[in-house]
Write a structure and sequence with these properties.
Blueprint lengths: L3 E6 L2 E6 L10 H16 L5 E6 L10 H6 L8 H11 L4 E5 L2 E3 L1 H4 L6 E4 L4 E3 L13 H9 L1 H10 L3 E2 H7 L4 E2 L3 H13 L3 H12 L3 H19 L2 H15 L1
Parallel strand pairs: 2-3, 3-4, 4-6, 5-7, 6-9
Antiparallel strand pairs: 1-2, 7-8
Length: 247
Amino acid sequence: MSLIERELQGAILILKLNRPEKQNALTRDMYQDLANAINEAHGDFGIRAVVITTTSGHFTAGNDLFDFLNEPPIEPGSPVMNFLEAVHNFAKPLIAAVTGNAVGIGTTMLFHCDYVTAHPNSRFSMPFVSLGLVPEAGSSLLFPRLVGHQIASQVFLSGEPFDANVAKSFGLVAEISESPLEIAMTFANKVAEQPPNAVIQTKALLKSELHEKVAAVMRAEGELFQMALQSDEAREAFMAFLAKRGK
């Protein structure tokens, strides 16, 4: 059983997170599989868009904490950085259909998406500070530009989750639906019918102002994240979190 399922529907590649017993907590191998699939879609002119979703009731619980503790994975060339670079540089529409929990990277990857749909039960969170860490995926730049400094500070510094309605008010989610994948696929197929070079060039223009800035911020975040992961503060926070979750 693949932990990242690939399904091709016409010109749309659907990537489904498939580790339901762990709420799709992402391992290094899963990150690399996602990066490979996105990079291959980038170079395949027959694929016009990529949709990321889940096979189960949750989008992702974020990073697999045991995997992170055993092998801190944010160094350059690591599977995590390969995935972040893949979503950042993907030239075609990147779409997400979210259900249930979208924790950490499950939320920050959405800043790189061109269209996001969410089930009403979706809950988003970026609990980096709560785990003794710092934001990643360029979110320390992209989130405050989306919602303003004070709301970004409130969310990042408290680590508190927010629901689909709040996510839509932030501009993180475009549509809330009981059938988020269906809505996402409708949009993906509509885009797939558009002249493909015009779509690619328009996305490049939309991202042009921040593209290099985001790449630089992601590198800086990665360095600080790596340092934080190795700190006693983070390890204590991880252990406290795991103990609380185990109760």
